[in-house]
């Protein structure tokens, strides 16, 4: 008789979660306006990022549902649905989810924190943390990545896109000068690869972009759950 897999503790709740949620609620309207007028955040405008998402979509097609964690106004969620995936999105910010539901009424969205996903084990073919995990404190991110691993079926993939650097940057305004209160945690790709490996996710692709001229993530890692 096979034994059930060990149960990991849930990720810690960030102490600033409510403050970060309020900040994204304030900035949501400006973010959506910039998305519509400048293409900021739209992977269709950045060929290498679009190619990474396309490859991820091909890799998880047919493996099961896909979850976009930190989906914002649903741009990547909708793109993946167009690619034929059974995908849904969650975000910490209720205002972001309001925009997502309005802009993409054919997609499924819910308000949920990355640290409170409550996912069934081995229930997803793919999971995304696309430019959405950089507000998680360093001691919290590992627990979230462990949640990603446990929710994937063997052979499933996670894709992580984030900022590159060594610093913790305190932000007081964003997206057109809207007041916010959050910390952007920058990561060295090598350290992020170690975190993924530690939770059982093996990096199979590593895309790095130069900082000059970029308005999005500078590193994209795709990792596979082997067993």
Automatic annotation (TrEMBL):
GO molecular function, one term: methyltransferase activity
Entry keywords, A to Z: Methyltransferase, Transferase
GO BP terms, alphabetized: methylation
SUPFAM superfamilies the UniProt entry points to: S-adenosyl-L-methionine-dependent methyltransferases (SSF53335)
Keyword Transferase: yes
Annotated Methyltransferase domain residues: 66-156
CDD domains, alphabetized: AdoMet_MTases
Domain of life: Bacteria
PANTHER family: TRANS-ACONITATE 2-METHYLTRANSFERASE, TRANS-ACONITATE 2-METHYLTRANSFERASE-RELATED
Protein name: Class I SAM-dependent methyltransferase
């Amino acid at each position: 008789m096979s034994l059930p897999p060990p149960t990991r503790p849930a990720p810690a709740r960030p102490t600033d979660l409510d403050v970060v949620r309020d900040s994204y609620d304030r900035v949501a309207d400006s973010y959506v306006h910039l998305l519509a007028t400048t293409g900021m955040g739209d992977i269709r405008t950045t060929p290498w990022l679009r190619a990474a998402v396309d490859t991820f979509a091909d890799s998880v097609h047919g493996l099961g549902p896909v979850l976009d964690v930190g989906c914002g106004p649903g741009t990547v969620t909708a793109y993946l649905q167009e690619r034929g995936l059974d995908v849904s999105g969650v975000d910490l910010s209720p205002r972001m989810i309001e925009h997502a539901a309005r802009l993409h009424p054919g997609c499924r969205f819910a308000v949920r924190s990355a640290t409170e996903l409550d996912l069934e084990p081995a229930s997803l073919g793919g999971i995304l943390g696309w430019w959405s995990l950089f507000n998680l404190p360093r001691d919290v991110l590992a627990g979230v990545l462990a949640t990603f691993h446990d929710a994937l079926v063997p052979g499933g993939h996670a894709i992580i896109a984030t900022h590159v650097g060594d610093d913790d940057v305190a932000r007081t305004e964003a997206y057109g000068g809207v007041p916010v209160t959050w910390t952007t945690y920058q990561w060295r790709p090598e350290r992020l690869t170690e975190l993924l490996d530690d939770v059982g996710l093996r990096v199979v692709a590593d895309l790095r972009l130069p900082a000059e001229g970029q308005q999005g993530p500078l590193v994209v890692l795709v990792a596979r759950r082997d067993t």
